Amino acid sequence: MDFTELVRTRRSLREYSDEPIDDTTLEQVFAKTAMAPSGYNLQPWEFLALREPESKKRLQEVAYGQEQVTDADTAVVVLGTTKPAAHAEAVFEDWVKKGYLPDKEAKARLIENVTGMRESSADNLRRWTTRSTALAAMTLMYAAWEEGIASCPMEGFDSEALVEEFDIPDEYEPIMLVTLGYPAADAKTLDRERKGRRPVDEILHFEEFEPAEATTLTLPLKD
Amino acid sequence: MDFTELVRTRRSLREYSDEPIDDTTLEQVFAKTAMAPSGYNLQPWEFLALREPESKKRLQEVAYGQEQVTDADTAVVVLGTTKPAAHAEAVFEDWVKKGYLPDKEAKARLIENVTGMRESSADNLRRWTTRSTALAAMTLMYAAWEEGIASCPMEGFDSEALVEEFDIPDEYEPIMLVTLGYPAADAKTLDRERKGRRPVDEILHFEEFEPAEATTLTLPLKD
């Protein structure tokens, strides 16, 4: 589907039908997700897809009981590694091979830089991984919608409880949840007017930053 | 353009032509950006677009001299507010009006919740705003590419120096930079094979999370 049309029609939807997402379609959605950009192409993202009713129930318990977690065909825990160099060797070897880096010395210097980021504060590393991983999460939601699969990004969950429940290793950080499923035929959300957005002239500032004094809402992308 | 095709062909590109982006096209790109999802639809994003050579030069000085900042038609500083309730009143009023919330009491409770997030640590708030703002930044890059405008996301800049140079108020956080411009006809990047990505079976985990032991790179979305 046309990207403009995707943006125009995408809704964050929590009401799903029972129609299952087939494995090939899900794989295709994640093939697109995998193509997202990231700082230094380090691809810090990981996706834990829960499809079994029992697993989704466990996630729901650490997500304040939100119904869409079990109603969805697939509930995805979006994780980011906080180890910048986790994939650096393979990534920079690829750069040398394809001509993005001149030689092995340039590669060694880059690996050293990226490994050095590890010395940054834990908070900086969590923000670093949040940034690139969210780029992939947005790609996931557009790729899903292109297949007619609705999504709902969620940040309401108990991060520590989630890490404990799903035995997430220390160097991974839960970034957000994304539920995926075909829209319910009678989804109430689809009967409602789309939620408003801040207009372009309030969010886009030229040459200097002066925040708008008030918030107005409209639909910047016209139907 | 088809979203699959956008994902397949998008490259992070630093080599731009001199062809200017016209105002209407830029506005249309940001109209799509504005439609991105965000937690509670709070839309914490702001975009400072630098188009004057002098402004881009000032940004380049706080971005380690990277050439693409001045070579681009437009260099965008992507900012996020760390005040979750900045737009809450307007956003939840819109929910009441459109039937997403039953009444004014429900609205008052939500505003209270969101205002309470302000008590969270500064680091949590920075991570919160990074998450939603990066969703908009990814939308910006796809929307640009749909118009044939290439982009390069950048996280290499001195955040404190940027805040000082552009007089960014305390409650806003620089999330990343995105340069925008039409590709140079002789862009070397376009002659090179696209940078590899971690394959779906390494990033997608079903039911339990076991990180892959090694990194391999391929192009998950086939040409």
Q: End-to-end span of chain A in angstroms?
A: 16 Å
Query: Which bin fits the share of residues in helices of chain A?
Result: 40-55%
How much is the average pLDDT of chain A? 96
Number of helices of chain A: 9
| Shape designation of chain A | globular
Strand order of the largest sheet of chain A: 1-2-4-3
Residue runs with pLDDT of under 50 for 5 or more positions of chain A:
none
Strand count of chain A: 5
Counting copies of identical and different chains, the oligomeric state is homodimer
Molecular structure report:
Two copies of one chain form a homodimer. Chain A is α+β, with helices and mostly antiparallel strands. Chain A has nine helices and five strands. Chain A has helices spanning 3-9, 23-33, 53-61, 68-71, 88-98, 104-116, 122-146, 159-165, 200-203, and strands at 45-50, 74-81, 150-154, 172-181, 204-206. A four-stranded antiparallel beta sheet of chain A has the order 1-2-4-3, sandwiched between helices. In chain A, helix 2 packs across helix 7 and helix 5 packs antiparallel against helix 6 (104-116). The longest helix of chain A has 25 residues, at 122-146. Chain A is globular and about 60 Å long. Chains A and B meet through helix 1, helix 2, strand 1, strand 2 and helix 5 of A and helix 1, helix 2, strand 1, strand 2 and helix 5 of B. Strand 5 (204-206) of chain A pairs parallel with strand 1 (45-50) of chain B, so a sheet runs across the interface.
What key phrases describe this protein's structure?
alpha+beta, 223 residues, homodimer, 5 strands
Secondary structure blueprint with pairings:
The structure is a homodimer of 223-residue chains.
Chain A: H1 3-9, H2 23-33, E1 45-50, H3 53-61, H4 68-71, E2 74-81, H5 88-98, H6 104-116, H7 122-146, E3 150-154, H8 159-165, E4 172-181, H9 200-203, E5 204-206
Antiparallel strand pairs in A: 1-2, 2-4, 3-4
Helix pairs in contact in A: 2-7, 5-6
